[in-house]
Specification:
By secondary structure, the protein is of the alpha/beta class. The protein has eight helices and eight strands, in the order αβαβαβαβαβαβαβαβ. The chain has a single domain (about 25-235), classed as Rossmann fold, CATH 3.40.50.150. Helix 1 crosses helix 4 and helix 3 (about 70-80) packs parallel to helix 4. The two termini are about 30 Å apart. Its EC number is 2.1.1.33.
Amino acid sequence: MENEDQPRLRSVVSYVKRGGRMTVGQQRAWEEHWPRLGRTVSELPSGPVDFTAWFGREAPVMLEIGSGMGETTSQLAAAAPELNYVAVEVYDPGLGQLMLRAEKLGVTNLRLMHGDAVVLLTSHVSPGTLSGVRLFFPDPWPKKRHHKRRIVQPEFVALIASRLAPGGTFHMATDWEHYAEQMLEVCSAEPALRNRYADEPGGWAPRPEWRPVTKFEQRADREGRVSHDLIFEKR
């Protein structure tokens, strides 16, 4: 996924820059909650983020890339209070909506990053420190000429692997068959990762009951597409 505003230091970045107007509620969430819950990747000081200080406690850090409008993310954070849950997203209204959902659910273990996940991982996350990374339903770029824009490429997977702690997981989900196959191929070729479900049919992970059904999955089901989960872990 590409963004013309980012310096070309890498072949793939994690998003396409999107606009969008915020609702009154989303704007209120930004004004009330962002100073405490959010940071902008491009404005971070050099070096790794001190997640322990930011959350006010030491706990395993889970990074979700692309939280969208936050429905799934808020539920996942609420269901895992033992995690320091970090969501990185570029869509302003989506972050506003996530803060509203978190407020409604009483979530206290969630922090938000606005910006490019690749920059965050490269410059502001120490190697070997994440307990997990989640990438649910990234842009599929279904046209063949656009496949190079997909975020799951060898360089990106190597970056993820380097930031995971031993035993940490990289969990992906997509409803596009070809993209799922690409994810499987690229991650299987990364020597630092192993497929936790390599012995399962096709190498796919069983769909976790704890992962909420997203609007993308609902649409895929209506359109006859099957969603696949993949879970790789750091060796």
